[in-house]
Amino acid sequence: MRPGLHRFTHFLNSAENLLQQANQQPNPSLWLLKNNGRTPFFMLEALAKLYEAFHHKKIFKKLRENHFKIIEDGLGQLDYYDFYISEFENIITVPRTAITYIKDQFQKKSTELNELLLKKGWIGEHNNRIAKIHKKLDAVDWKKEKKEVKASATRKYFNCCRMKNRSARHALTMEKFSSPKTASSMRCV
Fold it and tell me: Looking at the chain, which terminus has fewer C-beta neighbours within 10 angstroms, N or C?
């Protein structure tokens, strides 16, 4: 198995295990929030963004925007409201109407995320979203490890430095990244 596919598979399997358990709960989105369900989706979103930069942009952008980001953002919204509920609930100077509003927003976002999880096939009777993503990733023509490292190192360096000088960009060639010592000695300024 190529390293890129292995990276995705690891976090997809984590997400699948969590989703299967969440599927058995009365409120799957709340269960995911309380059981660290956001982490695998965040990691999948980050991997898709990374691979989008140097490997099949269309496929990985679609996975990131249409699948991973939506779930991670939904869990992030729940986390946001959950934090304020726990912070303000026991403070007597906070108006009860404010706390009620925050709780209503939490419930609204939780319901929206549960509906999205069901509609998009992450949970429910027809929970085949993970299988579809596995199938799509299996069809990708993954790069060999050396090519992947070179491509990611070059992109990372260019993005880190935000090099505007075109001649400076051309001066850096792939050969400079073949040696780990050379790559690590180059500093972003």
Answer: C
CA pair distance 47, 128, nearest whole angstrom: 21
What is the residue type of 14? S
Identify whether the C-beta of residue 64 lies closer than 8 Å to the C-beta of residue 52: yes
The whole-number pLDDT of residue 126 equals: 87
What is the pLDDT averaged over residues 89-109? 96
The pLDDT tens digits of the residues spanning 32-82 come to 999 999 999 999 999 999 888 887 889 999 999 999 999 999 999 999 999
CA distance 96 to 76: 24
d(CA 85, CA 79): 10
DSSP state of 176: G
Q: Which of 50, 79, 78 is nearest to 63 (CA)?
A: 50
Opening angle at CA 58, ends 136 and 138, nearest 5 = 20
Domain extents in the chain: 3-138, 145-185
Task: Give me the phi and psi of 92, to 5 degrees please.
Answer: -70, -20
